[in-house]
Amino acid sequence: MQDLFEAARGAMARAHAPYSKFPVGAAIRAEDGAIYAGANIENLSFPEGWCAETTAISHMIMGGAKRIVEVAVIAEKLALCPPCGGCRQRLAEFSDAGTKLYLCDETGVKKTMTIAEILPHSFATDVIG
Ligand SMILES: [Zn+2]
């Protein structure tokens, strides 16, 4: 998981967060083995910005992968940066209940959770289709 952590930290350095000054990085290891990273990207029109996890998911989908094996999140200004509510649902869309979530600080992984733990009773895609 060190490579995933380093990808998330590297992505955080590319955040566009001039307004909040709260850079966040996320990295996903997908079922194809590839790592897809992302950072938060803010906008002067504040509601138009989005989270690091969302950027990483976008990269994964555009890379041709569909399933998240594990995901790491880091924010330099928080000891641990759990995904926001919206990102929990976005991650759940492409995860299994046991998909690992690593909450990191600048030195490495500090807490390991599962998607089911951070979003119990999620709106489940298996009932739709
Ligand atoms: Zn979010």
Would you mind describing this structure in some detail?
This protein has 129 residues and is an alpha+beta fold. It has one domain: Cytidine Deaminase, domain 2 (3-Layer(aba) Sandwich). It is built from 4 helices and 5 strands; from the N terminus they run αββαβαββα. A 5-stranded mixed beta sheet has the order 2-1-3-4-5, sandwiched between helices. The mean pLDDT is 95. Residues 51, 53, 83-84, 86-87 line the site of zinc ion.
Set down the secondary structure blueprint:
Layout lengths: L1 H11 L11 E7 L4 E5 L12 H11 L5 E8 L9 H9 L1 E11 L2 E7 H4 L11
Parallel strand pairs: 3-4
Antiparallel strand pairs: 1-2, 1-3, 4-5
Bound molecules: zinc ion.
Which descriptors apply to this entry?
Cytidine Deaminase, domain 2, 4 helices, binds zinc ion, 5 strands, alpha+beta
What's the quick description here?
The protein is of the alpha+beta class. It has a single domain, classed as Cytidine Deaminase, domain 2, CATH 3.40.140. The chain has helices spanning 2-12, 52-62, 85-93, 115-118; strands at 24-30, 35-39, 68-75, 95-105, 108-114.
Main pleated sheet: 5 strands, mixed
Give the number of domains: 1
Bound molecules: zinc ion
Instruction: State the separation between the terminal residues, measured CA to CA.
Output: 32 Å
User: Order of strands in the sheet with the most strands?
Assistant: 2-1-3-4-5
Question: What would CATH call the architecture?
Answer: 3-Layer(aba) Sandwich
Give the mean pLDDT.
Answer: 95
CATH H-level superfamily = Cytidine Deaminase, domain 2
Task: Write the CATH fold name.
Answer: Cytidine Deaminase, domain 2
CATH class: Alpha Beta
Q: What string, H for helix and E for strand, traces the elements in order?
A: HEEHEHEEH
Helical fraction equals: 25-40%
The value of Rg in angstroms is 14 Å
Backbone shape: globular
Strand content: 25-35%
Low-confidence stretches: none
The count of helical stretches stands at 4
| Structural class by helix and strand composition | alpha+beta
Question: Can you count the beta strands?
Answer: 5
